[in-house]
Amino acid sequence: MATLRNLPQDMPKLLAELISPKKNQIISMALAQSEHLQITLLTFADNENVSEEEYFGDTMYYIVEGEAIITQGENVHHLKAGDVFMVPAHVLHEIAAKGAFKVLQITVNE
């Protein structure tokens, strides 16, 4: 069973304020993790990327702040703050920074 963690309980905060970028790094904060669910908040420094990854379940990317590029084979998708995009399970894809950005990633497996 997944339980939520690393989220404010005493007072509301902006999601983007929960994680801070660091030069030349990708920082992640797990918000929930179980056999069937992973929720992670990530921040990418400018020019950082994760190449050719695939996940066990369908993965939703919600751009919290900044802009990102998701590439699936020859398909290139430019996302900006507020955009949401889903990559089906076991599909190779790359996510890259177009400037620093923050993304909420939710992966669900049945």
TrEMBL record:
Segments forming domain Cyclic nucleotide-binding: 44-85
What is the official name of this protein in its record? Mannose-6-phosphate isomerase, cupin superfamily
Which Pfam families does the entry link to? Cupin_2
Q: What residues form the membrane-spanning segments? A: none
Q: Keywords on this record?
A: Isomerase
Stored InterPro entries: cNMP-bd_dom (IPR000595), Cupin_2 (IPR013096), RmlC-like_jellyroll (IPR014710), RmlC_Cupin_sf (IPR011051)
Q: Which PROSITE patterns match?
A: CNMP_BINDING_3
The UniProt GO MF terms for this protein read: isomerase activity
